[in-house]
Specification:
Radius of gyration: 32 Å
Structural class: alpha+beta
Distance between the termini: 97 Å
Oligomer: single chain
Number of strands: 19
Strand content: 15-25%
Largest sheet: 7 strands, mixed
Length: 604
């Protein structure tokens, strides 16, 4: 066993705190650990073979050992965390941030920040709130920031010299920083500060600020501004009063950890409780199996990595005692500048919240490690690489046109998120057309794409990571023309042609051909076929309604109510034609009965 060959080196190790690193034959760091006494801790590995599968695999691969001495266990803890982050050793537990639910991003790096839906937390200088569960809460909250504080939703470069404000200003969803005579940079900055208070859940402080500004506006006889601030106060107060069921004043400020460790991997859920309310939920997880890890080891790694860039509250509640609890508490206290306790609640409301976090972690584990879901993510990763996308195309929207010789042209839009069709977000459109003649496929595609994303601009998203167009270069060009007219040319669209199943992009002259069994192509085909099915179903219904209306709707005195009455009574249009005057008069009166009989008498 290779570890035995290091016996002499281990015997000479210092009995001081520090970090030890194991390397394999290729020189890669495969494990980083910390110790209160390096010699005693590393010597334990000599007799550890057979303890568990993880340790056995580690000991079989070790070929070299290095140590770094520190002044204290707390310093060793911090150094261990940094080395794990930098080197990603294969036998250490490395958690990743939650990617299942969206965040809201306040783009503090922009001169005139916006609030956007973000799929993941980034350390890029912007402020992030969330994640939001379910995802629709993110969009609702973003819409509130527009309505309450007038935060802009456009992607224009703001110089303050725009000729006039846009429609968003007219409907009181933006305070128009694009026109400096309407809104100065300082005024917009105050709106951004209020927005951040709102996103942070600091409603008491926000209400106090809003009230002060309302009073100032009223005293300055700026009554319209005062009324807007009053309405904002009412909305925030309503949200403040709708406390979550988990809210308890005795819970104060604390973070609650829940863990699900299984054969496929690991998921950690953290509930952040502020002023007795659960204000955020953060998910961490691995993308691979964790072999032989204990719950204490997992919690130690989770606490280290979660608080690496976050301040810790006074209390951290966990389902079991983490390894090196005392050292962790000291490290957290040094980072936060106050006393921090790591507690394992045994009963009451506090234990109930820990159990709730555990149940949420178990649910997230099932979702994360479902085999079908894993295959779908592989397909999305292939698409990202093939199409050179900046991020994983987690949200795909697909458009299809259905028509027969220009008659009753309709369109459909279906949504696929994380490889799953979202039927609740499907949309269907009747093509209006701007010309007297029926619109062709290109004009229809232009119209439906423009209508869809004009609506999304008004609502503030969510915008797709990829737009899929059922068609070739012509349909794709029509879609991009519509996007450019809306100022959304940065969105990425791709066309998929039938029969050849080739992918057309804006930036490539030649189409992209994927193998017939490629998971990425199969995913696009499934989305395209669903859009086609939805469009054809709607088109058949439109033709049926047209045929149904073509007869009875032309009878004088027959409106929607009487039409329904006749069809319900006589079963069909043919039944109405066969009915006698007496039967018709009993339902719609003698005058209308005569009109029905006269109408059908003149038709073959």
């Amino acid at each position: 066993m290779p570890i035995r060959e290091l016996k002499d080196q281990i015997a000479r190790l210092p009995e001081q705190p520090g970090v030890y690193l194991y390397f394999n034959a290729a020189g890669d760091t495969i494990y980083v650990g910390k110790a209160r006494a390096l010699r005693d801790r590393v010597r334990n590995y000599l007799g550890a073979y057979g303890a568990d599968l993880k340790t056995d695999a580690l000991l079989d691969e070790v070929s070299r050992l290095e140590v770094i001495v520190t002044d204290s266990v707390v310093e060793a803890l911090a150094l261990e965390n940094n080395l794990i982050k930098q080197r990603s050793p294969k036998y250490n537990i490395r958690l990743r941030d939650d990617k299942n639910y969206p965040y809201l991003q306040l783009t503090a790096t922009e001169a005139f920040p916006r609030v956007l839906v973000a799929r993941r937390f980034e350390r890029d200088g912007n402020y992030y709130a969330g994640p939001f569960m379910p995802a629709r809460f993110a969009r609702k909250t973003m819409a509130l920031t527009h309505r309450l504080f007038g935060i802009r939703s456009c992607n224009e470069v703001i110089t303050g010299k725009r000729g006039r404000a846009c429609l968003e200003y007219d409907i009181k969803r933006c305070i128009a920083p694009c026109v400096d005579t309407i809104c100065s940079a300082e005024e917009y900055g105050r709106a951004v500060a209020l927005t951040q208070l709102f996103l942070e859940g600091r409603n008491d402080e926000l209400l106090k600020t809003l009230k002060g500004r309302m009073v100032d506006a009223a005293e300055g006889e700026r009554f319209e501004e005062a009324a807007q601030l009053r309405d904002a106060m009412r909305t925030v107060q309503t949200l403040h009063d709708r406390q979550q069921k988990m809210a308890r004043t005795e819970l104060g400020h604390r973070d609650v950890f829940g863990v699900k460790l299984g054969p496929a991997g690991l998921v950690v859920q953290v509930f952040q409780v502020r002023s007795g309310r659960v204000v955020e939920r953060v998910e961490l997880g691995t993308e691979a199996a964790i072999v032989g890890a204990t719950l204490g080891e997992v919690l130690e790694a989770a606490i280290q990595q979660f608080y690496e860039l976050r301040g810790a509250p006074p209390d951290v509640h966990v389902p079991a005692e983490p390894d090196n609890r005392d050292a962790l508490e000291t490290w957290l206290e040094e980072k936060s500048g106050r006393r921090v306790r790591i507690v394992v609640p045994q009963r009451g409301e506090k234990r109930g919240l820990v159990d709730l976090a555990n149940r949420n972690a178990a649910l997230a584990y099932q979702n994360r490690f479902n085999q079908a879901t894993a295959a779908q993510y592989d397909a999305l990763e292939t698409l990202r690489a093939v199409l050179a996308l900046p991020a994983l195309p987690r949200r795909i929207e697909c458009f299809d046109i259905s028509t027969i010789q220009g008659s009753e042209t309709v369109a459909s839009m279906v949504v696929c998120e994380d490889g799953r069709m979202k039927r609740g977000e499907y949309r269907k459109y009747r093509i209006r057309g701007s010309e007297p003649t029926a619109p062709d496929d290109f004009a229809a595609m232009h119209e439906v794409v423009q209508r869809r994303y004009r609506k999304l601009l008004e609502e503030g998203g969510p915008f797709p990571d990829l737009i899929l167009i059922d068609g070739g270069k012509g349909q794709l060009s029509a879609a991009y023309a519509a996007l450019e007219e809306l100022g959304l040319a940065n969105l990425v669209a791709v066309g998929i042609a039938k029969k050849e199943e080739l992918l057309f992009t804006r930036d490539r002259e030649d189409p992209i051909a994927l193998a017939g069994d490629d998971p990425a192509l199969l995913l696009l085909q499934r989305i395209r076929d669903e859009a086609h099915r939805f469009a054809v179903t709607f088109h058949r219904r439109a033709r049926t309604m047209r045929d149904l209306h073509s007869e009875l709707d032309h009878v004088p005195g027959i409106g929607p109510r009487r039409r329904r009455t006749l069809l319900r009574t006589f079963g069909s249009l043919a039944g109405v034609r066969r009915a006698t005057r007496e039967e018709l008069a009993a339902e719609v009166g003698p005058k209308v009965a005569d009109a029905v009989l006269a109408f059908f008498a003149g038709r073959p």
